[in-house]
Amino acid sequence: MKIPRYTTQKIAFSLIVAAGISVVIPLVLVIAYIIAQGMGALGWEFISAMPRNGMREGGVLPALVGTVWLTIGTAVTSIPLGVGAAVYLAEYAPDNPFTRTIRLAIINLAGVPSVVYGLFGLGLFVIFLRFGMSILAGSLTLGIMTLPVIISTTEQALLAVPQSFRVVNASLGGTAWQGIRKVILPQALPGIMTGIILGLERAAGETAPILFTVATFFLPRLPHSAFDQTMALPYHLFVISTQVPGMPIKIQYGTALVLMVFVLGMNLLATLIRRHYRRRRQW
Amino acid sequence: MIETTTMTDQEKFILNEVSFYYGDQAALKQINLRIYGNEILAIFGPAMSGKSTLLRILNRLSDLATEGRLEGEVLLDAKNIHDPDVSVTQLRKRVGIVFAVPVPLPMSVWENITYGPLLSGNRSKGKLDELVERTLTAAALWEEVKDRLHEPATALSGGQQQRLCLARVLALQPEVILLDEPCSGLDPISTMKVEKALIALKKDHSIVIVPHNVQQASRIGDKAAFLLMGELVEYGVAEEVFTRPRDQRTDDYITGRFG
């Protein structure tokens, strides 16, 4: 029997729509559940106070501040290196064994499990370079983990800029670098921003890389320098969910909610920045 | 075979036995050609005959071609443009090019025109304003865009974009202007404007144009060169090439028997 092609189109279309919807469902459920469970804990005190009574009361301020510092540290270490490497690969690098090695390294870096980055950071930064457990060591570890994301998205964004702009720049007597600075990078900026934020978001939410390099179980004071240890939201969440008996559920979910709002807030910020650049350029 | 001895002041470019290869594929075969100042040379021929490659060799944009290889020598004012002491960015300012498809940079009209001059150092805004007006006027575009100088160049029509690209090249104050089918996407009125602008520019520049058809070549060319499969078949005063071609292949092409 032959099914009419209009019917097969209908079936295919329904399946595709179902696939689309089912992507949204888990996200909505996760967010709704965390909000429902954690909303009760939220308040000014929760994000502005130190934890008390074995972390069963009070707030998450030191963990929140720690995560903010780690995110900034990650940005400082990974953005210049990552964008620089991507510009080299997209604009300058010839295709030869050396650059193929670089590309292979980037692909493999992306595949390394985060806990391995944590052990690597412990060995190199904490012990060998004597940074100790510190924001510096944690930021560097997270930065290396973030590099492949930033490099590959930045390279894609650069390659998406039409080749003809490079030719026009050369034909008007511009050096390759002048073309990159004045035309290519501004054009690729929204795409680069997206890659950076995606990478930093992932870094902000990671637990394993900071486990051995910076995060502490309980430290009810704010860090003073890059060489201080600190609490951090993902690890704090792990601790209060598994290591502290008698922990109120709403504190756990409240902490999860703060972490989620922080990460989604970065996402929102990226969208706003992107839209700002699009509007300013008008094309 | 260097012929610098017979060189006159009038000669801008001399090509001696120039061949160009993309990989193993020869795009140009042993071209010998002289390009003179203050006139328009029209290079015509069927598709894939090497016209665009020839233009790009003159300002070394051909350097950008991967797997590209040049033989022979190209002299500009008796100086080999491939000599190690020649600055390629400087060369490209002296020899500007307008492409078949206009590519405005993603900036305003004003920024497009000042892009080249600003690359080689800062100039006062007043001077740049004056340059913008002068070049847009020369490209027959000033009246149409004088109130839109700070709007995106991509908002202009195709014909306006092509004249903008011409103005952008003029802003480099080049000695030679190369044009690769600058009117291929244009309507007859825009084409006429560009042609008029080119004839006026002859006064101060050498112009090498790949016209989009034989009619345009005969309308504006002082000299004409016929390329076929990478070979320079005929070269001479345009009127003679188009009325009394010496080579049968040229005759066949311009009378429409092939191509």
Keywords:
A: 283 residues; two-stranded antiparallel sheet; 11 helices; 2 strands; globular; B: 259 residues; alpha/beta; Rossmann fold; 4-stranded antiparallel beta sheet; 10 helices; 10 strands
Q: What are the segments of chain A in which pLDDT stays under 50 over at least 5 consecutive residues? A: none
Q: Give the CATH superfamily of the domain at 59-233 in chain A.
A: MetI-like
User: What does the main sheet of chain A amount to?
Assistant: 2 strands, antiparallel
Q: Supply Rg of chain A.
A: 23 Å
Strand content of chain A: under 5%
* Spatial extent as radius of gyration of chain B: 18 Å
Distance between the termini of chain B: 33 Å
Number of helices of chain B: 10
Total beta-strand segments of chain A: 2
Known CATH architecture of chain B: 3-Layer(aba) Sandwich
Mean pLDDT of chain B: 88
- The total count of helices of chain A amounts to 11
Percentage of residues in strands of chain B: 25-35%
Gap between N and C termini of chain A: 52 Å
Q: What can you see in these coordinates?
A:
The complex is a heterodimer of chains A (283) and B (259). With 283 residues, chain A is mainly α. Chain A has a domain at 59-233: Orthogonal Bundle (MetI-like fold). Chain A is built from 11 helices and 2 strands. In chain A, helix 3 (61-92) runs antiparallel to helix 8, helix 4 (97-111) packs across helix 6 and helix 8 packs antiparallel against helix 11 (249-281). The longest helix of chain A is centred in the N-terminal third of the chain and has 34 residues, at 5-38. The radius of gyration of chain A is 23 Å and the shape is globular. The model of chain A has no long low-confidence stretch (mean pLDDT 90). Chain B has 259 residues and is α/β, with parallel strands linked by helices. Chain B has one domain (4-254): 3-Layer(aba) Sandwich (Rossmann fold), CATH 3.40.50.300. Chain B is built from 10 helices and 10 strands. Chain B has helices spanning 51-58, 88-94, 109-119, 125-138, 142-145, 158-170, 188-201, 214-220, 238-243, 248-254; strands at residues 11-22, 25-36, 40-44, 68-76, 79-80, 95-98, 176-180, 206-210, 223-228, 231-237. A 6-stranded mixed beta sheet of chain B has the order 6-7-8-3-9-10, sandwiched between helices. In chain B, helix 3 (109-119) crosses helix 4. Chain B is globular, with a radius of gyration of 18 Å. Residues 1-8 of chain B have low confidence and may be disordered. Classes of the chains: A mainly alpha (283), B alpha/beta (259). The A-B interface holds A 162, 164-165, 167-175, 178, 182-183, 186-187, 281-283 and B 59, 61, 64, 89-90, 92-93, 96-97, 99, 101, 103, 105-106, 115-116, 119-120, 152, 154-155, 168-169, 172.
